[in-house]
Design brief:
Length: 189
């Protein structure tokens, strides 16, 4: 009976990986993202083959969710050690009106100089957000420039071949994200 259990366990381990986030490997959306980065270079997921890519939508004026998420990504990169070079976070601004390329470059540098921000026109951003099923909306403030942006707060994780695999809920913690990144890196080995 013990031998039979060992066979069952080894058969299970070769199946689908178990993620700490939500496995969305079978979805038919968010197949690519094509926007310029904060250096003006056009980007798409194929640019990052060989790396696990984490895509997050936010804005630089965000008081909590966005900086917390980016800080977690910096922690994950550090926790991965040498494999941290195989992680590519992409921050997609939902506020292209205020988030200039210079501002986004400085914002990314606060977390890690290898992190990239993507910035399109409002029309491009709206189209990409729709493809990713991301909600965002401008919320007026006391002055025309003091508005905030309501937005979805999860991240999308792509494997090293550019396939969407995991949806990571905000607040799950850096440890859970690091575990899923390790799983995807191990899969590629």
């Amino acid at each position: 009976m013990v031998a039979g259990a060992g066979v069952l366990l080894s058969a299970c381990s070769k199946g689908k990986p178990e993620f700490r986030g939500v496995d969305i490997s079978e979805v038919e959306y968010a197949r690519d993202i094509q926007l310029p980065d904060h250096n003006g270079q056009p980007r798409s997921l194929k640019d990052f083959r060989g790396k696990v890519v984490v895509v997050f939508f936010g804005y630089t004026q965000c008081p909590d969710v966005c900086p917390t998420t980016m800080q977690e990504m910096a922690e994950v990169k550090k926790a991965l050690g040498k494999d941290g070079e195989r992680l590519q976070p992409l921050f997609v601004t939902v506020d292209p009106e205020r988030d200039t390329a210079e501002m986004l470059k400085a914002y990314m540098a606060n977390f890690d100089p290898s992190f990239l921000a993507l910035r399109g026109t409002l029309e491009q951003t709206t189209a990409v957000a729709k493809d990713f099923k991301i909600y965002f909306k401008k919320v007026d403030g006391k002055t025309p420039t003091s508005y905030t942006m309501d937005h979805s707060a999860g991240s999308y994780i792509y494997d090293t071949k550019g396939r969407l695999r995991v949806y990571y809920r905000y607040g799950s913690g850096a440890e859970a994200l690091a575990a899923d990144v390790r799983t995807l890196l191990k899969e590629a080995s």
